[in-house]
Amino acid sequence: MEVLVCVKRVPMVGGRIVLTADGQDVDTRMAGFTISPHEECAVEEAVQITGRLGGAVSVLTLGSEASIDQLRDCLSVGAGRAVLLETDGTEFGPIATADAIAGEVRLRAETGPGYDLVLLGNEAADTGDYQIGVRLAHLLGWPVATGIKAIDVGDSGGNGAVVRARRQYRGADEVFELALPAVVTVKEGINLPRYPSLPGRLRAKRAQIERRPVTWRPEGLRKQGLRVPAAARQQSTVLGTGVTAVPALVGVLAELGVLP
């Protein structure tokens, strides 16, 4: 099995989200970076699949040179090969992103063992895009299943290898049987991602990253701007300082009905 996992460098946001002055991006000057939980699970699932069936896991990202850090994180937990589709830092839209990934899949089919399965996170952790997997499958002419919480790769009984993908929808289990090669997008919870080991980190640090330049191109979709929803305002009142606050505190407790 040759499995490709597509990941994306996204900001590690743990507090208040701040936008850039033009409202086009999240201000990440004080943020760290990671990949989304969906993609962490996709990498783990690929490693588990190849562990059972043999084969290799490749990870790919589209982004600037800084994205190499996230590729090495994936290498440290079991991926064996990493590819950076290197940009100048310009944000690609979903159409251009899917097209760039499709180009890598076709190139791999021509120059080496082609991919049997492409895994992606169900949606991007930063922009919430739910398009790349579907668009990629359409470009390749492959079957696709989205929102998947369980994967099993096996034989269909005479018709070749298949992937059985399960998801829950409105309280019911849905199972899809897709002929390989196929595209599957997975959701967080499909497995429990492992932590990188020290040998894994050392191996990832020494690993060679394949780099191929890609050029941004315009597409029909346009981002108008980002908006951070207004948060509920909270207000506090200072009752006083020291013993002078005791009467006010007693009054508040009486209003709450906690005094006998």
Q: What do you see in this structure?
A:
α2 (68-75) crosses α5 and α3 packs across α4 (132-140). The model has no long low-confidence stretch (mean pLDDT 89). The chain is an alpha/beta fold. The protein has helices at 37-53, 68-75, 94-111, 132-140, 198-206, 246-256, and strands spanning 2-7, 10-12, 32-34, 56-63, 81-86, 117-121, 144-148, 150-155, 161-169, 172-179, 182-186, 210-213. The chain is elongated and about 80 Å long. It has one domain: Rossmann fold, CATH 3.40.50. It has a 7-stranded parallel β-sheet with strand order 7-11-6-1-4-5-12, sandwiched between helices. A 3-stranded antiparallel β-sheet has the order 8-9-10, with no helix packed on it. The protein has a two-stranded antiparallel sheet with strand order 2-3. It contains 6 helices and 12 strands. The N and C termini lie far apart (71 Å).
CATH second-level architecture: 3-Layer(aba) Sandwich
Q: Could you tell me the strand content as a percent range? A: 25-35%
Strand order, main sheet: write it out: 7-11-6-1-4-5-12
What is the number of beta strands?
12
Number of helices: 6
List keywords for this structure.
260 residues, 7-stranded parallel beta sheet, single chain, 3-stranded antiparallel beta sheet, 28% helix, alpha/beta, Rossmann fold, 6 helices
Give a quick precis of the structure.
This protein has 260 residues and is an alpha/beta fold. 28% of the residues lie in helices and 26% in strands. It contains six helices and twelve strands.
